[in-house]
Amino acid sequence: MTAYIFDSETTGLNDPHLVEAAWLKLSSTSSIAVTDSFLQRYKPGKPIELSALATSHILDEELEGCAPHTSFKLPVDTEYLIGHNVDYDWRVLGQPNVKRICTRALSGKLWPDADSHTQSAMIYLHYRNEATALLRNAHAALDDVKNCRLLLVKILDGLAARLGRPVNDWEELWQISEDARIPTVISFGKHKGTAISDLPSDYKRWLLNQSDLDPFLRKALSK
Length: 223
What we know:
Blueprint (H helix, E strand, L loop, with lengths): L2 E8 L7 E9 L7 E10 L6 H7 L10 E2 L11 E4 L2 H7 L6 E4 H8 L8 H8 L1 H7 L6 H23 L6 H11 L20 H8 L6 H8 L1
Parallel strand pairs: 1-5, 3-4, 5-6
Antiparallel strand pairs: 1-2, 2-3
Helix pairs in contact: 3-6, 4-5, 4-6
């Protein structure tokens, strides 16, 4: 089983093109040792949006001479892709056939009372004394994957405490992540904030008939 923590910087939310990619290859859930790493910038096929510039501080003119954004490929042995809000990066990569482990969903399940579950917020929660230094380059892809690994250490510790044993392997962590991604409360619409189990049956049927419904919300509604 081969797992990679991956992060991308992109041109923005509107049809994002890759600008920077970084990954860490991890050994196992028992050690979380890094066995390989990667960082590279790419030239997008469109201008970087101002909102993305304000986040990554990567300028279009710095990318002249870089490889085209379409040239990036995940390592061929990738089975599990780990990230905070991993679906965004997965879509940027063209939705490759890999299993996704979402540290955002796992954080929300383990620490539901936290007022924020962004990666930076979780670093402050678990590494308060070191957080300012760790987050100095937040939204640089390599720093983000390193911080995601630190968060993953705390997630695995938290899961071990709940299970009464360590997580066996990446497959088990993926299964736990899949369960964590199933919402319990509706986050939009006229019933926003209502427990999914308490939604009116006619509203549930209407949602289930929507072709673009989030697959995890569909699972929750179908229970």
